[in-house]
Amino acid sequence: MDAFYSIVNTSQTSLYISLFAIAFNPTAWNIVARNEYRNKTITRMFGGNTYYGCYLLTFLIFSFGMLRDHLYKQALGDQPRVPLLPEPYATIVPIIMFAIGQLFVVTSTWALGITGTFLGDYFGILMDHRVEGFPFNVLRDPMYVGSTMCFAATALWYERPAGLIITFYVYIVYVIALRFEGPFTDMIYSKRAAEEKKKAL
User: Fold this and answer.
1) What is the mean pLDDT of residues 85-90?
2) What is the pLDDT of residue 48?
3) pLDDT, average across residues 15-19
4) How far apart are CA 75 and CA 80, in angstroms?
5) Can you tell me the distance from the alpha carbon of 198 to that of 165, in angstroms, rounded to the nearest whole number?
6) Quick one: pLDDT at residue 201?
7) What's the CA dihedral at 183, 185, 189, 191 to 10 degrees?
8) Distance between CA atoms of residues 76 and 96, nearest Å
9) Close Cβ partners of 81 (under 8 Å, ≥ 6 residues apart)
10) Do residues 136 and 129 touch, judged by C-beta distance below 8 A?
11) Which of 4, 11, 62, 146 qualifies as a FRET site for 138, CA 20 to 30 Å off?
12) Left (φ > 0), alpha (ψ -120 to 50) or beta: where does 127 sit?
């Protein structure tokens, strides 16, 4: 345990705030989106305009994502610094990892569009077909993978072992979120397919 406490300062409040923010974001958005699908709460705020409702959720998700990243960086600053990689890898590896992570995030957003990325299907804004081009032809969930890579790259850049532990926590949070998000999204599209098939008969 002494080795653990030499790389992780568990007395820092910023650590727990960061962990809370990381878990809060996907949990909150899944709850809000499911409520929207069932009750159209946000859509009703905009007089039935589903796009305005989705854009509001997009703004909130993006803003809280920026806040989460800020809190993570702040938490790293309060943690012990320990060299993790020898030079020049200590610089090269996190840069490459961050660049690839951002590539996955940006290209998946481009491929899906704003409404496809930010839970538009819960508002009834469905895509015509499944996106199969890059990066979805490489990864099933490129945005979550890319985000996790960026967390790890940041930890390596600032040489904070605690950041790698937080990154593993991020991975667990995303895996749990996908277990709820994936099947529910599949249900939405399956329901549409069944309705279209029924109309065709």
Assistant:
1) 94
2) 94
3) 98
4) 10
5) 50
6) 66
7) 70
8) 20
9) 158, 159, 160
10) no
11) 62
12) beta
